[in-house]
Please model this.
Amino acid sequence: MKNKNLNNQAGFTLIETFVAITILLIAVLGPLTVLSRSIVSSTFAKNEITAYYLAQSSLEDVLNYQKSDLASCSGVDSCSDDVWLGDLTRCLDDTGCDISTNASTFQVSINTCNSNKCTFVKRTPDGVYSSISNITANSSYGVNETSREFYRKVKIIPEDTDGDGKSDSAKVEVSIRWDNGVLGERSFVLSTYIFNYLTN
Model:
């Protein structure tokens, strides 16, 4: 008689249990996948916006430096040829330079890059991005693979627009590279032009 009662008891079969667990896993893992992708996307967006503002900051530093340099010229002839670029001539070769302004003193510094040393832009503990000069880099782009900070390079290309053999304008290119974790290394170039408005 005991055997009859055991056979008539209702319960879940093994197949029903596996189906329930599968449905539960799909319901939990779906949103977790979306969440992890959104975290990666937001990190990518944050880094890209930061890189754009760091490049824009260098362009503004070049423009401000060039305008203050031209304002100090005593006459048109003293600012002719490549002299009008002043210390920006350090940025003329392919290795480039980094230009940054000290947040507390507002002094502009120009740091020349070479093949294995250049400038990182790193976030300080107080949340400000600051250039750190002459850090030896581990990769060919100058990015320390473990730091995932930004690498910034300014290059100035003089141009002779009126054909007189003297540069009266220059193209300013700021290239930014950074390691974006699982998305790999990213880079872009932001450019503008500066002009010697004191030429004949």
In short: The helical segments are 2-7, 14-71. The chain has one domain: 27-195. Residues 38 and 79 are 52 Å apart (CA to CA). The longest helix spans residues 14-71.
